TrEMBL record:
<feature type="domain" description="Methyltransferase type 11">
    <location>
        <begin position="27"/>
        <end position="115"/>
    </location>
</feature>
<keyword id="KW-0489">Methyltransferase</keyword>
<dbReference type="InterPro" id="IPR029063">
    <property type="entry name" value="SAM-dependent_MTases_sf"/>
</dbReference>
<dbReference type="GO" id="GO:0032259">
    <property type="term" value="P:methylation"/>
</dbReference>
<protein>
    <submittedName>
        <fullName>Class I SAM-dependent methyltransferase</fullName>
    </submittedName>
</protein>
<dbReference type="GO" id="GO:0008757">
    <property type="term" value="F:S-adenosylmethionine-dependent methyltransferase activity"/>
</dbReference>
<dbReference type="InterPro" id="IPR013216">
    <property type="entry name" value="Methyltransf_11"/>
</dbReference>
<dbReference type="Pfam" id="PF08241">
    <property type="entry name" value="Methyltransf_11"/>
</dbReference>
<keyword id="KW-0808">Transferase</keyword>
Amino acid sequence: MNQEERMYVVGNQKIKVERELTGQWILDIGGGGEGIIGLCYGNRVISIDPRIDELEEAPEEPLKIVMDAKELSFLDNTFDSVTSFFTLMYIDNNYHEKVFKEIYRVLKDNGEFVLWDAMIPEYDGGIKDIFVIQLEIETPIRLIKTGYGISRKDKVQDIEYFIDIGESIGFNVIKEEVRDKVFKIIFKK
């Protein structure tokens, strides 16, 4: 069996990323690769990613730091906004609460945490054990077509899953959007 036969593909999900974040400093969790947030907000962004190769691919303007979201090396109340653009799907579900606690800690009072991610259904044990989502991302700069993939085993998530974690940490949900198989949540500290 080849890898393509193993793929559970969610195709052509359209997302629009606008310049809506206010304040001076934005922490982008998992800001490597296409670096969508860095592309949109430039030198206001500090992009972190545990993989140096992902940061090397990202846009040039943001400050890029190799760092794990489970252990943020920033002072409390540092950032006006924190973003996660299809990053939490790559982090083991057992660590999501720890990541949310760290985000809450480094976010200023009344700061916003904006989370974009995918609905990942429960794995049924069949041959389709790789989850792939294809995205068409409209930014103020340009249209980006990309895709992300992970193992489906032990990986289930939806908007309610993340809302529950956020509220348990102390965040308030101020906006939630679902569009087909992707979602966006804006949390406020």
